[in-house]
Amino acid sequence: MGIAVVARLAAAAAALGMALAGNACAQSYPGKPVRIVVPYPPGGGNDLLARLIGQKLIEKWGQKVVVDNRPGASGMIGADVVAKSAADGYTILVCASPEAALNVTLYPKLAYDPVRDFATITQLAVSPIVLIVHPSLPTRSVQEYIALAKKRPAEISYSSVGAGSPHHISGEWMKLLAGIDITHVSYKGGGPQLVDLMGGHVQSGFVALPVVAPYLNSGKVRPLAVTTVRRSPVIQHVPTLAESGLAGFDVSQWYGMTVPAGTPGDITARLHGDVIEVLRLPDIRARMIDLGAEPVGSTPAEFGEHIRSEIAKYRKIVAATKITVN
Fold this sequence. Notes:
By secondary structure, the chain is α/β, with parallel strands linked by helices. 44% of the residues lie in helices and 19% in strands.
């Protein structure tokens, strides 16, 4: 047998061995507890999704799944923890749009690269932000809100959950497109923001749907529009900002799952398949919709492309609105 033939056989055997080893690795995964890092405090959208999905993965895997809340710096602290973790599938990030796409357009230096340092698993869900007003403000549509703001420049206030958040971006983009001057009031969370809005301390606000959904029929707030390109199935009667005259308006609070870059492909494929199965469960879908989050379940490639397109979109919005953060 010639040397070349022996070399080819050896190479084929090595390739087969690697394939079998990879398959065995995927079949045995997870062989120990899995950590899901949530880069926000308990109770937020990321946290609720992580716990919903994590519980189903426990049942599926027969293995512990621990939710680890690492809040701070608009999600960047938790994201950096995952970026610097071992690429073995045992540390997972349930991310949202700020740390995965928006922050890189606002901050000159990030400790991680949202594209280079992560392998995408799937986009889990998308949730609109809702423009709501206090009932004392005599507006029942976006058109009336814009008309009133033009009559009373700088007198109408709008709130967000913080400078540089998608909620803040929504307000500044609306100001630019509508040609109005409204005053931004920043809060440290959706709860305090909504309390002050319902109390009339601030006249309007961009609020996450899961936060405001329980109060939309209370008479304490009035929804005018959602920020997404399509209406929400949770509040189908509420139009989009694009429908209301602000063509092209599309801002959402979306959630996804990533792992450190370099995680073996067989493990990311196993994770993707298992999470997609969970997202298709009727009880999970119903619970997510109740929370104001529409299930997605994209492929890893689709989610990666979504992140890149969101970064490009936000770069343009940030440049046009001249938003800055401290």
